[in-house]
Amino acid sequence: MLKKLNTLLSGVPMTVIGGVFLFLSFVLPKAGINLPIDPAWVSIIISGIPLLYLAIWRVIHNPGISKISSALLIVIAMFAAIAIKDLFAAGEVAFIMAIGAILEDMTTNRAKKGLKKLISLAPTQGRKIENEKEKMIPADEIQYGDILRILPGETIPVDGIIVTGETSVDQSIMTGESLPVDKGIGETVFCGTINRFGAIDITATKVGEDSSLQKLIRMVQEAEKKQAPMQRIADKCASLLVPIALIIAVITGFATKDIVRAVTVLVVFCPCALVLATPTAIMAAIGQAAKHGVIVKSGEALEKMGHIDTIAFDKTGTLTYGRLEVSDIISFHKAWNDTKLLSLVASAEAKSEHPLGKAVVVCAKEKNVPIIESKDFKMTAGKGIYAEVSGHKFVCGSERFLAENNIILDKEKHDELDKLRKQGKASILIAEQKECVGIIALSDILRTESKDMVSRLTAMNTRTVLLTGDNKKTADYFAGQIGIAEVHAELLPEEKVQSIEKLQTDKRLVCMIGDGVNDAPALKTADVGVAMGSMGSDIAVEAADIALMSDDISKIPYLKRSSNATVKTIKVSITLSMCINFLAVTLSVLGMLTPTTGALVHNAGSCFVVLIAALLYDRKFE
What we know:
The protein is α+β, with helices and mostly antiparallel strands. Among the domains are: 86 residues, Calcium-transporting ATPase, cytoplasmic transduction domain A; 145 residues, Rossmann fold, CATH 3.40.50.1000; 125 residues, Calcium-transporting ATPase, cytoplasmic domain N (3-Layer(aba) Sandwich). Helix content is 52%, strand content 19%. It is built from 24 helices and 22 strands. Strands 10-22-21-20-11-18-19 form a seven-stranded mixed sheet, with helices on both faces. A six-stranded antiparallel sheet has the order 2-1-3-9-4-7, with no helix packed on it. Helix 21 links the parallel strand 20 and strand 21. Helix 3 crosses helix 4, helix 5 runs parallel beside helix 24 and helix 10 runs antiparallel to helix 23. The chain is elongated, with a radius of gyration of 33 Å.
């Protein structure tokens, strides 16, 4: 009941009401209107009860010196002001603290729905093979060593090893790779990944809580627990402020034999400006970031971003667009130019469901290249296709697929293929009559702003690192294109987490930028997580502290500069508030301030801090 009352009184509507009555308490006497009960009592009750509740709760529950908080000092000052019948001063200190609490709540409140979405990805059932019969069973009943059959389009329910069949598996949930990975007998598949083409049988090797997806979920949960709430600077100083304020007030009272001076010292010592310095600056910065399409979920994230010295990037969907496009068309047939080869291959691949084949067809359509109806189309899952187009019998696919059809590349063609591989490109080899007649290469497309963004971060003395699930050659190629020297490739989600933890062990403050489900644990583990909000996974966005709603990574240098300015503003505001408090305490000891005028002086200091913070909102950081 008491907690509900506290929540009600500390809300915005009741705080506004308290502010109105505090204003009436100040202006009505000036107008010669004296009410039987001072309106300030309403503000004292509304804003004072939550403060009293907080101070008592901390005394009871907090360990050691942290029992002494800024709330305790303000409660003491409030009761001291009530004791000498200066109700306005009592209401004012309580009201200002209530405003500070509301501002901080507005910046730190964040939704945490991502974990539920991650859990929803876990498969609920699997097709067990027993006595040569298929039987659907719940996923949690699958045991180590069970043989499971996964049909095209189905989600793999546990980690396992393929014992029968070949396919292509969409592992983007685990590795972020833009392409399905071809899998055959003896190769490992992961829980939560999707079988795209051929039917396969697997032996379960990691089930239940040991599966890759469950580990992914646990990592997000554990990283979530590691995120401590932002501790107010005022509370860090409270262990010193409270004793010092009490000692100075007692000495002043005894030395001057004036209880009013002692109470004034307590009132002006209240760290209202100190408390407001952080949340107001952060709120202004968050508001400005929102205008630029950057959603900052917590004040703590913005504050930490100002101290970040290392930024780690995912590749697919972050530094690149995450979509395949035809990059090279190479014809080895003397009579066929690039357009002719594209037309024939697109015609052969028109009935294919493989992403590479689909990308070739899209390219042909965009270039208005004719697509001819094919005959005798056959697809071998994870390897390639056979089709007849205008009398030409084509075999299209991987080098291994061509080799299985007794088509061997000569040195010239093999060197061309190696060159494309070193550039991180996927290739479709086209063969006719036992001879390779061309290659079509496809590549993820680098975001145009990536190189300039990395260059600007380097100029700001910020270290950049690439963490990706893609293969080493692809990762090295893209990193070289944009100027990232440190590359960690072929990483599973837990390995991305380990890479970040190693950087943190080396005393680096790390920001992780990613877009996929597989990035969620790394986003949580990093000191600050930034997700691509428009195209990125909902889970990645929820796991992150900051979201780029337009997927414009050129905003990263802006975000860093804005965060730096916010931290600097907070430090300046804290320094000014401490100076104002010191001056006000001195004037109070000398008897030049009363509790009411003292309250107004330190209220002016609070307004000054808010004004400095507000300037952040319109500052230019580009």
